[in-house]
Structure formats: structure tokens, C-alpha cells
Amino acid sequence: MALQIPSQKQPGPDSFPTQPDAVRDWVSTLYPLTSMDSCRALFRGLKHSNRLETDNASRVEIATILEPAIEDAIAVLREEFLDLSLPFPLRAAQARQLALDLLLEQTFTYKIIVSETNNDSAQTPGPSRQLAIYQALRTLSKLYECHLLSHSEPDPILLHDANTLFNEAGEDDLIDQTLDSEAPDGVTAWSILNAYVYLQLLSLSCPYDQRQRQLPTLFQFLTEHTPKLTVKPYKAAESNNDSVYAIHHTQAGRPQRLKHTARDTDANLLTLDVAPLLAALDQVAERAPETINTFYEGETLSRSGLILLREALDRQKTRRVARAITRKTVHTEISLRHVSAAIRFTTVSEADAIPAEATQLSDSWPSVPIHRKGRWIVCNENRFGACLEWLDKEPTDAAVGQVIALKRTTKAKVPTWVTGIIRWIKSLGPAHLKIGIEFLGTEASALKVELTTEEQTTNHDCVRTLLLTGVFQSDARVALITPPLIFRQGEEIITEDKPLLLEERLASTGGFDVFGVVDKP
Question: End-to-end alpha-carbon separation of the chain, Å?
Fold first, then answer.
């Protein structure tokens, strides 16, 4: 397996500098790295540097000089696209692509260093080679994280390069040696083995069903618990537990369940047992809050987020009923506020706007309306859920954990809404998005719930909710969707129609809560 690196040529008189002192002076002219232009200049310089011949010692020093600048640039670029609706607006899409390109070039830098030390037969493996392999794996992980932050599928070549680097480290007996000064935040010491295991865990986490703000915290959780895991050569007596994964370390691709893996190439198999991580997830989930205010999602993992991560690692979920393949457009409304308004004003919603809903503009992106009434394409569906596709550059309101309603028409030509929750989102390109929906109920009606017991109330004293009938996956016959963190189990509420009693909380996301409800006795 060969590392994927660009070819180099002799520098010319107008080339990027190949002397460390000259590179240091050039980097100082880019600061402060607060704009897209300065980040682009850094990318162009790094790309040019990777394609010029120079001695390995100078390349190592140049990589050290550029590393903090690249880190600062990535932080600036992430702020441009993190937690924005997909598909990204133009500026956010450009920032994301620039971040990916910059990290890719940084991996090239370290892989070139690894390749050059490998080609020098007179040189014994030393600290510079060990550090280069480690830094290459860490940068591959950052590149993988950047893809996941935008709900896109990472290139399989990243795992191919990770396997190649790990194999080279194994040949030089560098795998278990720790690099204390290079450990990520939250751990005291890391090794090449830890960096490799972390990247494999990222590939298994499949966080397309996680809310974007939760992802950095999820990455930190995996970082802190990675030292509990290890990889080892496969043995015929290896456990067939569901927690054991097989890694083909001479190929590209994510780890697969060992019991589902062909054993005809035992010499090329490594095993990874995630049981210690699953146990840690269970312990942390017991103490984690069930719901988290959206303002704090980037600081604490919710119980639901930990459960989703465990399900991804455990891989026990199966589809209960096959879905019918289809290709039809459907009108949707997304978010509790818009679904409630659409149901309340069904006839008006056929027009270009819903009263008091479509005139506002986003504060952070003035060119993007808050309410976007579009038509999605249904790819497949059954009575429990559906997969929808969006083929347009215009951003949507879709977000994991949001309420969504699909408009249907009965045989009597009466419009009705099927309400659900967006379970996962995957970006397949600049103008290609897919979402997975789990239906919550067959019918929904909009209700206003009072937030005060005073006789005189106004719209400001009420919140919009949805009353569901035909509730799935629950014994409750009727359920109420409410804004998050406002009501609690056992609370009595007053609606515009009648008082209700909130029973068990059936579901909870950063976007809403669902309670089973009964009429107040």
C-alpha cells in the first residue's frame, strides 16, 4: 500500500520559499488570520510548498512553523459553516471546502516526510519519523472530523492512508511509544496506536443522526476514551462478540463486525473490541441530562446523543418493515413553528407565504429567508418513515431533531399532514441532500397552550404545540409536541380547547419534546 502524495519538482526563482526562516517571515505577513483571503493565501503557500523539493530537515521545520497558522485558520473557517442549514450557503460552502483542502495539504506534508524518511535506507527510524506518522494520523482525523461536521461522507482514501501509516509504524516498532507533548486536549499522553484507534472510532460513529452542535463534544468524548481500546492481530480463537470489529489493515474501508468478516486473509486482519467504550457510554449516559438547552449543546452530550453513539457502535438496529422505492414530490414544512402555522392555516399555506411566517429574514444570513417552503422528493417510505431528497443549492431548514410534516391528500381530496422527526441528514454534494424521517403520528392538529393561569391571556402568553393522533411506537393514543424544556411530565396544561394532563415523555430532542396526553379528569 502506497501513501497518496503529490510529486515534487526543483524550486525556481519565483517559487515558494524552501528555507524555514523565509517561511516564518511569510507566515507573519498573514496575521491576523481572520479572513477567508488570508486563509486562502495560507492554503496556496502550503500547496506550493508540498510540490517543491527540499531536504527533509527543512520540511520538518517548515511543517512545525505552519502548524499553528493552519490550526488558527481551521478555527476561523469552521465558524463560517458550523451549525448552518444544509446545503450550505455559498460563503459557508466555500469555507468548508477551503478547510478540507487545507487539512488535506497538511496531511500531504506529513506523508511526504514519512515517505522521505522511509526512502532513506541509511537512516534508522527516529523521533522525526515517529512524530511525522503520528501527526499524519492526527491530521487525517481532523480531516475526517471536518467531513462529519458537515454531514458528508469522508473519502475512503483517508482510511487507506491511515492503514498504510499504521503498517509502516508497526514495521519500525513505533506503535506504542507515547508522545506526551503531542497529546490532544483531555488526555495526558497519546501514541500512534491511539491516533489510529481514534480514526477507526470516528469511522464507526456515523454521526449523521447527531445534532451538529453535539459533534465537537462527541469527538472529545471519543478522544478521552480512546486509550481504553487497542487493536491486535486476529487469532482463530478470537471472540465473536458483537463488540469485536475486524480491520483489513491492507485495504481501505471502515471496520466490519468480526463475525460477518471472511477469514480467508487472517494475516491481514486486526481486531478492535469496543466493549470498554460501550461500558463507558452506559455509565456516562446514566448521569447525562435527558435534554439540553440548545445554547449548551456544544458543551455537554445529552443522554439521547450518547444513546445514538452507542447504537452506532453496537449496530443492533434493523429496519422493521421494508420500504417501497418511489420517486414523487411532496410538500413539507419544517420546525414546530412552521408546521403548526401550516396546519392552522391550511388553505393559506397553499399560497406563497404563511401569515406572519415568511416575511422575516435570518439575522446571521440576511439573504436566506427563515421560512423556506419547498418540495422534497420521496425516495422510499413505509408506514413508519421515509427518506427524502433535496436537489437544489438553496439551503433548507432541515436539521436533525426537527419536526417535519409531509402534506398528503385523502381520497376525499382533503389535505392532511403526517408529522415526523428528522432522524438523520447526509450531504451528498453542493446541491444534493438526503434526510431520514421517522413518523410520529398519522394526523396532527395545531393547539395553543397557555403559559399562565390568568384569565386574560394574549398570544404572547401561549406557545404553539401539535396534537398527534395515531401515535407510532407507543401505547399512547394521543401525544403532544411542545417546544423543548418548557413542560414536564405530570404537568396540567390549558389549551384553547380543553385542559390536558401530560403523561410520559415519549421523545425529546434539542428541537422539541413529545408527551403522551390525556384529558384532565
Answer: 71
